[in-house]
Amino acid sequence: MFLDFYKLREQPFGVTPDPRYLYFSPGHREALASLFYGIETGRGFLSLVAEPGMGKTTLLFQLLQRWKGYVHSAFLFQTQCDSRELIRYLLDDLGIKSDGEDIVRMHAELNDFLFRETKAGRRVVVFIDEAQNLSDRVLETVRLLSDFEAPDKKLLQIILAGQPELEQRLSRPGLAQLRQRIAIQSRLEALPAGEVIRYVGHRLKVAGYEDTELFTPRAFELIAEHSRGIPRLINNICFNALSLGCARQESRIDSDLVNEAAKDLSMDIHVPKLGTAQGQSPTRPVRSLRPLVQSSYRWIKDSLIRRRLFQTSAILLMFCGMAIYVGARGGSGTLRQQGTRHANSESTATASGHSLPDARPDAARIQELSRRISQNSPARNPVGSFAYVVQPQDTLRDLCVATLGRYDSTVLSEIRELNPGLKNLDHLHAGQEIRLPVSATK
Q1: Contact, 45 vs 182, CB < 8 A?
Q2: How many CA atoms lie within 13 A of 274 on its CB side?
Q3: I need a labelling partner for 254 at 20 to 30 A (CA). Which of 21, 39, 171, 415 fits?
């Protein structure tokens, strides 16, 4: 193993959903906040959708950790089942003894359990992971579980987590009733290149790495390209690159090691195909000359290293002439189409209340998160506080503004009371756990 060679306490790129390694990208922060306050306000049905490997299960475990001691939860993984099996799995995970034969009796036992928990002041939350595997009949059974309610509140809250196929399933006409009951829908998007660097740095920090940068800048670029910003693929590439680096006694991971690790994993760099707008034909000169331009570029790159200056200059002049010709014949029209589509996408995003994540400053993210929190926050919070693992570049001011919408002496006083062992509030460290109030006194 490479732990001793790179001076790591533990494996930083494991495959188990360890909440300590959860990296809070802006998308993860927003999804976690939405689910947290959805449970707190008793919204009934919530959903979380993400591509495979985006860390949705890890995020659900983090959500469970924050509500530990205040909710009675069940976590269901076995989703390839019928309705009777689903209810039996649910009762078993909640600790309810049942023979599992009579489904009417199982519903009655569940109803009695929910009333007892509600009377004791505890919430009951059911997490259903990989929910896209549930059949339509079982999804209808899940919908009927929401009928367990008192006159003033829901007795059971359900979080459906799954891959994008779950959204497609819920869009079917036969599941319209279930779709209408989902009050909050959260989604995790792939990490952009800048977040990939912070993601890897966070995991190394939690694992005990204290040296200078372990990966070169070019290595990070290739990790982002090969993985397409999916955390599970990032972990696989980094693990294999570190294994190769240790075998070769390389103290720093460079682009060659990353490329070889990706090749061993059969990962090709994702190059999006040239698309065309609906109803429009592709620009013929650009499409036909693209292979020639690519081969010319590779030839020039080789010439810059191995051929004489005169030959290289001649090739460069030829390539420039070709590029001007391609741009004059077809490039301008394509750029106008792309510019129109880009402008339309920006206007659409603005109209729907969402802005592009890479272009949005931190202040705007905090304002948007604060708006969501203020809309969902109840008048009185029974929980009081929650544990938070500090992420890279976190500041106490940003956390308070995002969570409470304010940062003043009253908030600081409450945080000091919640964290008596915290000496310096102005210097938070990545991986450090602090407790934050969910609501501050006036």
Answers
A1: yes
A2: 14
A3: 21
The answer to whether residues 122 and 144 belong to one domain is: yes
Q: Are residues 83 and 123 in the same domain?
A: yes
3-state secondary structure (DSSP) of residue 354: coil
Q: Any idea what the Cα angle at residue 439 is, between residues 436 and 440, rounded to 5°?
A: 90
Is residue 411 very low, low, confident or very high in pLDDT (cuts 50, 70, 90)? confident
The tally of CA atoms less than 13 A away on the side-chain side of residue 15 is 6
* Confidence (pLDDT) at 254: 95
What sections of 228-283 are H helices per DSSP? 231-247, 255-264
The answer to whether 70 touches 438, Cβ cutoff 8 Å, is: no
∠ CA 80-83-85, rounded to 5° = 65
| Residue 199, domain extent | 193-264
pLDDT at 332 > cutoff 80 = no
Residue 19 located in a structural domain: no
| Same-domain status, 206 and 156 | no
The answer to whether 401 touches 370, Cβ cutoff 8 Å, is: yes
Strand partners, 47: 160, 185
Q: Do 203 and 166 sit in the same domain of this protein?
A: no
Distance separating the N- and C-terminal Cα atoms of the chain: 53
CB atoms within 10 A of CB 251: 11
For residue 134, is it within any domain?
yes
User: Is residue 154 domain-shared with residue 209, that is, in the same domain?
Assistant: no
Give the span between the Cα atoms of 370 and 280, in whole angstroms: 42
**Domain-embedded: residue 177:** yes
Query: What is the β-pairing status of strands 182-188 and 433-437?
Result: unpaired
- Chain position carrying tokens 């475990």: 61
pTM of the model: 0.59
Whether the per-residue pLDDT at 139 is higher than 90: the answer is: yes
Residue 21 lies in a domain: no
Q: How confident is the model at residue 359 (pLDDT cuts 50, 70, 90)?
A: very low
